[in-house]
Amino acid sequence: MKIINAVAAATLLLSLPTLATAMPAYARAYKQESGYMPSCNACHTDGGGSKLDSFGEEFKVAGKNMAAFGKIANKDSDGDGISNSAEMQAKSNPGDKKSTPKNPGNWLDIASLIPREVRHAFPGVLTWLPQDALLTKADIAAAKKMGVELSADDNNTIYIPLVDRRPAGTGLIFAANYQGKDFFLLMTTDKKLNISRVSVLHADKVPSAKGLKVYDQFVGQAVNKVSISAKAPLEQAVQLAVKRAGMLLYVRLRGA
């Protein structure tokens, strides 16, 4: 799997002009601390935007910044008997008990940067561009004018499949919340930012979120036109999450 650099991205993404730098911000911080670029699976169970693993949770609690690495360096987040700092130095995954310095596994393979569900949604695509979706104050203000409240907590990673060196759509993994419990959804769009799919990625805490008919209602909608019309609270939670995720895509990729 090939990941193109930021210079090539600037040329390719003619219709998506406002993307940030080419690798997720926390991955860049990890590289600064460890000397190498991790996959998103250091902090997430299945790529950027999915549920945080044990290391990701502790990194978040510690502040999600460079100082946080020092705060959790001597902890053993994944419970494999090896400290986080030792695992990072050995290029094993501090968030995966199965990955140890003696047997790090394939977590650093380039393919690991793209969650498998996102890859499966775009069969045959071999070239990907993972991009930060870091909201600026202008982005948040633009979203608010369109009726959607966003914040820095909505920062995410956008996965862009490239076909013939051009963007063919987007993939985004994001959280929805129901009765204080998070579950995770996957949304894909075409290159015009019309929704092609919304599906459940992880819903262990809210199993009733699986199989809802509401997911089919999003197909074909523009990401900035999602409405909240459901009467059932759980379906409303899904619609709200999709609306927020759609607006994140819109303000980041269309420069609203």
Short structural description:
This protein has 256 residues and is an alpha+beta fold. α7 packs across α8.
Biggest sheet statistics: 7 strands, mixed
Work out the helicity level. 25-40%
Q: Kindly state the number of beta strands.
A: 7
Give the overall form: globular
Task: Give the number of domains.
Answer: 2
Contiguous uncertain segments of 5+ residues = 1-23
The topology string of helices and strands comes to: EHHHHHHEHEEEEEH
Instruction: Briefly note the structural class of the backbone.
Output: alpha+beta
Q: State the distance separating the first and last CA atoms.
A: 32 Å
Per DSSP, what share of the residues sits in E-state strands of 2 or more residues? Answer: 15-25%
> How many DSSP helices?
8
Q: Give the integer mean of the pLDDT values.
A: 85
Description:
With 256 residues, the protein is an alpha+beta fold. It folds into two domains: 23-112, no CATH class; 115-253, no CATH class. Helix content is 29%, strand content 18%. It is built from eight helices and seven strands; from the N terminus they run βααααααβαβββββα. It has helices at residues 6-12, 25-34, 54-61, 66-71, 84-90, 116-121, 137-145, 233-253, and strands at 2-3, 127-133, 156-163, 166-167, 170-178, 181-189, 195-202. Strands 1, 2, 3, 4, 5, 6 and 7 form a seven-stranded mixed sheet that branches. The longest helix has 21 residues, at 233-253. The protein is globular and about 50 Å long. 39% of the residues are buried.
